[in-house]
Amino acid sequence: MCRWLVYAGSAIRPEELLYKVDHSLIDQSMHSKLGATTLNGDGFGMGWYDGPRPPGLFRGIGPAWGDRNLRELSEHLESPLFFAHIRASTGSPVQESNCHPFRYRDWLWMHNGEIHGFHQIKRELVLAIEPELFPHLEGSTDSELMFYLALSYGLRDDPIAGVARMVGHVERVAAAHDIRDPMQMTIATSDGEHVWVFRYSTQHQSRSLFYSRRIEALRELYPDNANFRRLSEQTRIIVSEPLGDLPGAWHEVPESACGLVDPGRDFLQDFHPEPV
Is the whole model's pTM more than 0.85, yes or no? Predict the structure, then answer.
């Protein structure tokens, strides 16, 4: 499977989370503790917002730990909102178009998990993508297909409902083909202003997902940590597995849950697929 993180808050250099913490995303690419695989070396990607324009995107097919351009880029750009992903393929080719995050206009999307039995139902799922969206589908992964299905089912108007309908459609098609427990996912998506995250699997044994405690609470727990002093109170980090070993710094996203990261109105709620 994969590992990913989302950062939203005070503008920082991505290197702070990709390289400089004890169990950084780069460290997780070699030594994942909670993932389905220890190594995540089948490509990587980073997407970032830096103003009123579509997000930037940088992806590569090699292991993240050895890419000099990723290190260079993460040392020099600053962003208040970025996605980063390290990939462990579940069978689709290692190619740039299959690396996360995926981008459509102002939207970014990344995923950890799989659609079980994907190749048996891929054709039927693809045919549910809206015709105007279909030309933008570049790769061969179930993850990107899920993105365009969610867009087709209303992601841009109501992200939670769009993802719920996407999952409902996948589960309905899988059931028609006698495929059990088809959906396994942790997902992050953003329009550049808000971030939505999802943790769900059909069998209710989803991959790990965590979010950081509020900065004011972290300042009380770790008063000598200079990083917490310079971040705004609205700063949030969502990760496949915790960065570093700071007891009390992370909450686990509940099973079958979704949430919104948005200044002043963060929330978590139950997530349920919606039949279509």
Answer: yes
Round to the nearest angstrom and report the end-to-end CA distance of the chain.
28
Q: Encoding tokens for residue 180?
A: 């059990």
Q: Note if 258 is an active site residue.
A: no
Domains and CATH numbers, the chain: 3-270 (3.60.20.10)
Q: Which residues contact 123 (CB under 8 A, 6 or more apart)?
A: none
User: Which of 2, 17, 129, 215 is flagged as catalytic?
Assistant: 2
**Residue 16, H or E segment:** helix 15-18
Q: What is the largest CA-CA distance in the chain?
A: 57
Contact by Cβ (8 Å): 9, 234: yes
Q: Along the 276 residues of the chain, how does pLDDT read in single tens digits?
A: 799 999 999 999 999 999 998 899 999 999 999 998 899 999 999 999 998 899 999 999 999 999 999 999 999 999 999 999 999 998 889 999 999 999 999 999 999 999 999 999 999 999 999 999 999 999 999 999 999 999 999 999 999 999 999 999 999 999 999 999 999 999 999 999 999 999 999 999 999 999 998 888 888 877 878 777 888 888 999 999 999 888 889 999 999 999 999 877 889 999 999 998
